[in-house]
Amino acid sequence: MDSSDVEEGSPAVVPGRNRRRMQSVRMVDVARLADVSPSTVSLYLRRPSSVAPHTGSTIERAIKELGYVPNMVAGGLAAAGSRVVSIIVPSLRNAFFAETVSAMEALLARQGFHILIGHTEYSLEREEELVRAALSWAPAAIVLTGLNHADTTRTMLAANRTPVVEMWETGDASIDINVGFSHAEVGGMAARHLISRGRTRLAFLGARLEEDTRAAQRCEGFRSACVEAGIEPQVVRHSAPASTEAGGILLARALAQGAYDGFACSNDTVALGVVFEAQRRGIRIPRTFSLIGFGDLEFGSFCDPSLTTIRPSADLIAKNVTELVLARINGEPDIEKGYRVEVGASIIVRGSS
Amino acid sequence: MDSSDVEEGSPAVVPGRNRRRMQSVRMVDVARLADVSPSTVSLYLRRPSSVAPHTGSTIERAIKELGYVPNMVAGGLAAAGSRVVSIIVPSLRNAFFAETVSAMEALLARQGFHILIGHTEYSLEREEELVRAALSWAPAAIVLTGLNHADTTRTMLAANRTPVVEMWETGDASIDINVGFSHAEVGGMAARHLISRGRTRLAFLGARLEEDTRAAQRCEGFRSACVEAGIEPQVVRHSAPASTEAGGILLARALAQGAYDGFACSNDTVALGVVFEAQRRGIRIPRTFSLIGFGDLEFGSFCDPSLTTIRPSADLIAKNVTELVLARINGEPDIEKGYRVEVGASIIVRGSS
DNA sequence: CGCCAATTTCGTAGCGCTACGATTTTCCCC
DNA sequence: GGGGAAAATCGTAGCGCTACGAAATTGGCG
User: Would I find Protease among this entry's keywords (chains A, B) (predicted)?
Assistant: First the structure.
């Protein structure tokens, strides 16, 4: 009954005969043309210095002639790891993150890495999905924003030896590598600055504080620094994302509540909205109140009044994250789990305070 | 759960072979636990409806229990095509493109696609590299910005059957699919609007026109519409990227050149810079001059005066690009090479004119 | 000119998954 | 309950490349 005695002379029709090819020109074609083995071509592509110069140039010529483009998918599979870095941010519409991603893309592209991107819209569930998706590409590293993640996300990442960098926020509960600064400290700086200007009736104008946990931390830092100075600040909230519109709404709401003489904002975009609304109402800044933003966005130097703000060195974050990712990938030994870089933040005093 | 090194009993006693595993849990493990063949697991993952409900739920349970994450790299290789869409934009710092990428990412993620991103900084050589890199991932589609590409880029893409969408600009020389609008027409609209306001001494304030070919087209459209109306406009240039700072510089430069009464700007950010500079100089807008921007960025409604602008329906671009990409991937027959969607642009008249 | 080490090149066996066709099971109706 | 169609499941052969170890070649020097 077994099929063990198949004695038919004709070779059984083999299944899976005509599969679709992904590429027309493969490494083997280059090898053939350059009259070397595929191994040598592969080696040349990965470590040109290990191939004799003459052989190298022959291969180079063959690649050009055939227009060969290496297949990263196959390469990634064979090498058990792809040259992809997955970056997950809350939102690209937010200038900070757009900037960071942009800077990292430029730096990593130079090292032959590609960027897979995802945005969470501040949802931990969405982040979890994105991390799962990212992992399925066997990335060289995963870069997350902030330290606040779903438990499942942490578990998934822990079960994996992919380097993980959490950026834009520092703290103790980091998964692996951590680059950023303390948002509570930034909030504190804002409060102390306003107080140093003699302001005492203070409020924090916050957009989307429930979701944007980093803004919430700045708010909390602001609060405690005020309390420390014997001042009880107000927090005015708006549930929409930070925008100039939100800034206008928040100022209106604050003015309806009381006579404040100092405002710290979620970020510079909100602060700009405050400036606009004040202009419309004929309120003079900083005569009537002092205003401080966060982020040092470009327009802050040029609006009228120019914005006092706190600059979070986004470029330093991008630079450090990139360097650490590369160091980790190259197996540098001193970049251990728990490695942390504080990039700090500096206050930039301008016209609005 | 998973130990870091894999030494599951495998009969690999063959001449010292030990490669590194990419994953600890593979599809075969899920199959084993669910007591089905790997094929069935694969089928379930790709077309759940083709698997008996009971089998499906058994597999589902096994996946959960093992924490299995499919390997897209292996899947992509086997299926001759990955679920990646590569998007190449000039810059993520530019709000338009950040917005578009963001919208597309959200829409495509819903369909199980991932976004590989690159930015060219307006360099055609860089774009070429990025396209080459993109192709090496065998993406489901490639999305480019604009119609202006290096010859080699065109050749590479032509040698490939990957769907290509060029967005944000329409014209005749498109590679494959084209979604956008005519920038010359936008420039014309701006000119005609200023003229309709009785303005006759007109100038275009342009940032980075040498590189940003779309801004250059708006400028050219502006010019010809002016000429058509018997007006000879001036073009004031600044070689730095569009920013509020550039707006200030351009206004200063224009005022030093002559007495203009109408300005069209590269985009809203530049226009905002003009507003700021005018404020500092005590110039009243629109009493002294009318101002029109481009892009309908968020702050435009809220600054003082609010900005008259031209809105390019970025969301429509993102929506159309995404839909066309999906249609093409699903082999819809009527989306042929040369398919074009004009999303148009509409003028939004506000306080600055 | 022979010997050994260093340099360069090569052959082979997968990486984990999916397409394809074949095989088995289920279902329906006479 | 038997026959045939439909549904469900399976077995196999790669997809294109790289890691690995081994083989071939070169070079230096006694």
Answer: no
Q: Which helix (H) or strand (E) holds B84?
A: strand B84-89
Q: Which nucleotide is nearest to B40 (CA to C1')?
A: D9
Give the pLDDT confidence score for residue A336 in this predicted structure: 86
Q: Give phi and psi for A276, each to the nearest 5.
A: -60, -45
Confidence of residue A54 (pLDDT cuts 50, 70, 90): very high
* pLDDT attached to residue A343: 96
Distance from CA of B67 to the nearest CA of A (A): 8
In the numeric block, the tokens 């700009």 are attached to A272
In angstroms, the CA of A144 and the C1' of C23 are apart by: 48
Chain segment A178-215, per-residue pLDDT in tens? 999 999 999 999 999 999 999 999 999 999 999 999 99
Chain B 46-105, CB < 7 Å to strand C: 46, 70-71, 74-75, 77-80
Domains and CATH numbers, chain B: 1-70 (1.10.260.40), 81-181+315-344 (3.40.50.2300), 183-311 (3.40.50.2300)
Task: Give the pLDDT confidence score for residue B333 in this predicted structure.
Answer: 79
* Cα dist from A121 to A130, A149, A164, whole Å: 11, 13, 20
In angstroms, the CA B237 to CA A70 distance is 42
Length of chain B: 353
